[in-house]
Amino acid sequence: MSNLETAPAELTCENTGEAPTVRGRVLEPRLVPLGGPRAMTVRRTLPQRAQSLIGAWCFVDHYGPDEVSSTGGMRVDGHPHTGLQTVSWLFSGEIEHRDTVGSHAFVRPGELNLMTAGSGIAHSEHSTQKTTVLHGAQLWVALPEQHRFVAPDFESYAPPALDVDGARVLVFLGSLLGQTSPVQTYTPLLGAEITLRAGQSLRLDVAPEFEHGVLVDTGEVTAAGVDATEGQLVHQQTGADHLDLVAAGRDVRVVLLGGQPLGEQIVMWWNFIGRSHEEIAAFRAQWQHERERRDSDEKTQYGPFPDQWRETLPAPELPNARLKLRG
């Protein structure tokens, strides 16, 4: 998914170095409209001032359930990414994906779509005509310095559903409860969808070197000792060897994210992740150049545009101030 803000803020991300605690902290979402007058609104919990990253997870958008007839659904034309992996996860609906490495796939509920941008890729995302309700999460993972220019790639994976004392668990990244996802990541990560029955509790053994986030999709849950409701994200720092989840008076569905702290600073602007103002400006300029010369035979950073693309998204103007790493 693209960040469609017309004036995206410079985001400098760093680890805070705060002391580990088992008890979690609730992060509130902010509402961000994507697109024009019939924009689909997402709830964004990462990044924010209180927390830049959770492991290498650097961007969390949560959307829906949206009636496509009123919102128009997802209509995101071709746009670029660098230095990250995008994780698409749906609860309902269907999204058609095309990219510049030749992938054509459909994102469906319970199926992971992982796109590695690396040195540069472009993709489009359109909800399909048969979609009536669109509901899901779009997540980004920052690539570490040594891997951030890897060749772009695309993978899909449908994890098996685990029954854990009545809880339903889908492990789509990393390892949990004896299940391991086969898709490639470049830092130690965890991603899972967990559904609990009303009143049910679940204790998960987790890696103490990981920090974790619990994104509440539906219902109310106590996670890492704090109460959270739909749209909120609970952050648990490193040092805990377990994570407790307790559902309140109705069924709960959450997305569990985890990973080792990245230990690096990054700059996020629009759909790019870089390490300097010069990099971001170069990524932007190259994208604009390739949009204008899409029929050229010259070698490109973002790859050949699919024949089906009629439109691509222009990059916003850079801010007047120089983009800088801070902290």
Automatic annotation (TrEMBL):
Keywords: Iron, Metal-binding. Residues 289-300 have a biased composition (Basic and acidic residues). Signal peptide: none annotated. Binds 1 Fe cation per subunit. SUPFAM superfamilies: RmlC-like cupins. Residues 192-291 form the Pirin C-terminal domain. Its cofactor is Fe cation. Gene3D superfamilies: Jelly Rolls. GO terms for molecular function: metal ion binding. Residues 289-327 are annotated as: Disordered. Residues 41-141 form the Pirin N-terminal domain. It holds the Pfam family Pirin. Fe cation binds at H79, H81, H123, E125. Belongs to the pirin family. PANTHER family: PIRIN, PIRIN-RELATED. This is Pirin. It comes from Saccharopolyspora spinosa.
